[in-house]
Amino acid sequence: MFEAPSLVFAAAGLAVFAAALLPRLLMRAPVSMPMMFLAAGFVVFSFADDLPDPDPIEYSDVTVHLSEVCVIISLMGAGLALDRRVGWKRWATTWRLLGIAMPLCLIVFTLLGMWVLGLGLAAAILVAAALAPTDPVLASEVQVGEPSETEEELEFEDEVRFGLTSEAGLNDGLAFPFVYLAIAMSMVGTAPSAWFPEFIVLDVVWRIGIGCLLGFGVGKLLSRIFFRSRIESARMASHSEGFVALAATFLTYGVTEMVEGYGFIAVFVCAVTIRSDEQTHGFHGVLHSYIEQLERLLTVVVLVLLGGAVARGLLAGVTLGEMLVALAFLLLVRPIAAWISLSRGSTGPWERGVISFFGVRGIGSIYYLSYALSEGEFAAEEATLWRIVGLVIVMSILLHGITAAPTINALDRARKRKALRDSGTEDAASKTAI
Fold it and tell me: What is the pTM of this model?
């Protein structure tokens, strides 16, 4: 018989190989890589009884830190991929999604949590905060690809992919104040006098402000070292050392967290700051490629474990009400909220519909929930909260995984046809709203 360590090594090798191969094989198929690895984890843990339960409650510390690392690496990759410099008009789609759609999702899901699911106020706010942000990890099929390296390419960034990528990059950090609010309510009560001052001053103003400031500062410093250092050996752009993207990620996150800032925001801002400097330099592609590969490996691990948790009973006891709320959130709440937020924007109806529908939920939600449960007092509702969040994530992986490739491919074809009809040139395709 084969020994367990040998099987583990062989399985790990196959998983890594599949992580490299599947995105290319499934590019135009109604199946996504997250779906495949979620299913693989479900099958493996269903039949391999000797494997330990990947229970997020029992192994809460592992769940927190594994999902945390996966998210911050994904945020660095998302920021490095964006070609568009930050601006009020240039990022109008992003600001609308963050300022209108996300608060609407928070409010509606909090109400659903209390009225339909029977959760207390603190638990309802927590589950809403965990599920409100879209995920930068599992939405690769609908996000921007490699950084562009020519002026012509920089001009024509797809609004759908840009909007979904930039939204996912920022809303992960912006949901954190409400996670802290839920934690505070679980410990000191729901009376505003007990939590409001600290929530506004520390959780909103200080943590967001210092996250943006340090992200920008570290990004500017690293960008100067990468591209314009007077010491040639320190000028990383001349040596194609892609792994310094990981150093930038951990440095920015660690420094920001040490001073009580939001590390998620800082990492994304740092990445966008680096990307906006020397935009056509090929080193951006090197940094992004390294981060993307590392992100893919970590995602495989998290998804296999999530599939295993589902197989071992994470969703056991799901009620009809919970299923209806999860479906309503994915099919009604997020799409309607996003549609409202973009109704006066520059996107056409088809682009608006795609952005509204693809509010992918995933590993960021796992982190928020596991972090809050380790810091707050939610013991009585812990299993219920994991069941609801796990259900929404699994449904999102299946629903968005099946529809992503066909929808985006159809949108690309429609945009090109309209551009050719209107101008006769293919260059206008990416700027045409449909």
Answer: 0.91
